[in-house]
Specification:
about 500 residues; alpha/beta; Rossmann fold; Helicase, Ruva Protein, domain 3; five-stranded parallel β-sheet; about 40% helix; about 15% strand; globular
């Protein structure tokens, strides 16, 4: 279990739909619980984190009004300062000295041909640019990366991808302005600082991390979504002999296959249209440090042999090159998937699994660490308070009891989202039971019973798939992450199916 450096996990904050429906709900109905005015005592804990630094300023340029409004609303909810413009014309004129990130939701023709991206990079070298590429623009996304974009998000994207990249870009911009080395800036963007909890399972995890850190073999960290796998990876790096060198994090399920190859392995000049210069990939950036491959199970099957070759001979070959460079990197992988089962299904290579799984660590769920819930909840509330100006919220006894009795299928990510919403809606400084957007813990989960009543005989496979997606999302009250877990697919796949079956606004 963990707390992210910016206070609330980047994975599960207030939802934003990719399409024009705007902000979407994340969790189920409010439970009706008895109110109790007595506040629950907060466990003692030492505060940590960024201190009182200003939260990032983001300029959002979007020519699609509904999506632009949704982006601004999401970021403002998370205490970002947002400047909005409706076109790419003269974007650089709107960049104030405080702007750290520019988010471009514009046609690639406007981003590239009108030199919008190039002008930003030339005149504001420390400002990081994230580009949203639309359908049919994958080739131009390569060019955007070559022009200096920090990242490209291909449609359909989701809030998790966006917020991870946004946090990374803001941290790079902040550290670049302090004159620090770019490699160090990329080292631990949005890095969680510690594991929270004193239960037996968490003590065991800490002991295992201390044993794994001094070693140099690859590590595979497993566990459900929101259990702190990436946090554990950061700690293994920080406690090991490579701590002074970069820790580069790459999220394997964020980009399309072509962009994933470029980001991971780099490219040479002329490798594709728009590749004006040589560019190192994340593997080379991590030289003498650590490469953390988040959700390695989402790595496209076509790229797995290339990664396997690197793990075997420690050489990386850029896209378009016929020579390989020696790179000294420790690799850590994380996954919430059953990779053994994926190997049996032909979706993951068994030799790659063997190569990455030389050492292993399993992260426990919140349910397994139930005695840590109070400590964890109060630490989340302290982090939320640092996003604003007021003191941390406290918990009424009835509210704390509900948190302790709830099973937390979404683990820490779900708790962060629930408490963020509760803190925003609470009347005063005390969060009461009525403020918690949770189903009552004594009510049986109807999801599996609902899904078990499907009658499939005579239906086409595509109809079965569509019905499974629709009814699972309905049973999960629109929670895409929970639906993905029930259907044993990635959250990105759920977003793709919503687009494929034209379900936006219908769930």
């Amino acid at each position: 279990m963990f707390i992210c450096q910016d206070g609330v996990s980047s994975d599960t904050r207030a939802g934003i739909g990719h399409a024009e429906s705007g902000i979407s709900p994340t969790f189920g109905p409010v439970g009706h619980h008895h109110e109790e005015a007595v506040e629950a005592a907060a466990p003692s804990s030492t505060p940590f984190g960024r201190g009182e630094e200003d939260f990032p300023v983001v300029l959002v340029a979007s020519d699609r009004p509904a999506i632009g409004r949704s982006l601004r609303r999401l970021l403002e909810t998370l205490r970002y300062t947002v400047i909005g413009v409706s076109s790419g014309r003269n974007v650089s004129e709107h960049i104030s000295p405080k702007v750290q990130v520019v988010l471009l939701d514009l046609p690639m023709a406007e981003v590239l041909e009108r030199a919008c991206l190039r002008a930003i990079r030339q005149h504001f070298s420390d400002v990081q640019v994230i580009v949203i590429s639309r359908a049919g623009e994958a080739g131009d996304a390569f060019a955007a990366l070559s022009e200096g974009a920090f990242a490209c998000l291909a449609e359909p994207w989701n809030q998790r991808d966006l917020l991870i990249r946004l946090g990374q870009a803001a941290e790079v911009a902040r550290l670049a302005r302090r004159g620090r080395d770019l490699g160090q800036a990329l080292c631990c963007p949005m890095a969680p600082l510690e594991l929270v909890g004193s239960s037996g399972p968490m003590r065991s995890v800490r002991a295992q991390i201390e044993r794994l850190a001094p070693l140099d073999s690859p590590v595979l960290i497993t566990g459900g979504s929101g259990t702190g796998k990436t946090t554990a990876g950061h700690l293994i790096h920080r406690l090991g002999p490579r701590a002074a060198r970069p820790l580069i994090v790459f999220h394997c399920g964020v980009l399309p296959r072509e962009l994933t190859a470029v980001e991971l392995f780099g490219h040479v000049q002329g490798a594709f249209a728009g590749a004006a210069d040589d560019r190192p990939g994340r593997i080379e950036m991590a030289d003498r440090g650590t490469l953390l491959l988040d959700e390695i199970g989402e790595l496209p099957l076509e790229l797995q042999p290339r990664l396997l070759r690197f793990l075997q001979d420690h050489r990386v070959e850029r896209i378009g090159s016929d020579t390989a460079a020696k790179v000294d990197v420790r690799v850590i992988g994380t996954t919430s998937r059953d990779l053994g089962r994926m190997c049996q299904q032909g979706r993951f290579r068994d030799d790659l699994l063997a190569a990455i799984n030389e050492l292993s660590l399993r992260m426990p769920t919140v349910e397994e660490c139930s005695t840590d819930v109070a400590e964890l909840a109060y630490e989340v509330l302290r982090r939320i308070a640092r996003l604003g100006d007021g003191p941390p919220r406290t918990l009424a006894q009835a509210a704390l009891k509900i948190l302790q009795q709830y099973r937390w299928p979404g683990n820490v990510h779900e708790m962060e989202s629930v408490l963020l919403q509760a803190a925003a809606s609470a009347d005063g400084t005390t969060i009461r039971a009525k403020d918690l957007l949770l189903n009552s813990p004594d009510v049986a989960d109807p999801i599996h019973e609902t899904l078990g009543n499907l009658k499939l005989a005579g239906m086409t496979l595509s109809s079965i798939e569509r019905r499974a997606v629709v009814e699972t999302l309905q049973a999960c009250a629109g929670n895409r992450a929970k639906a993905a877990r029930l259907l044993d697919v990635s959250e990105k796949t759920i977003y793709n199916k919503i687009k494929q079956y034209k379900l936006t606004g219908k769930i």
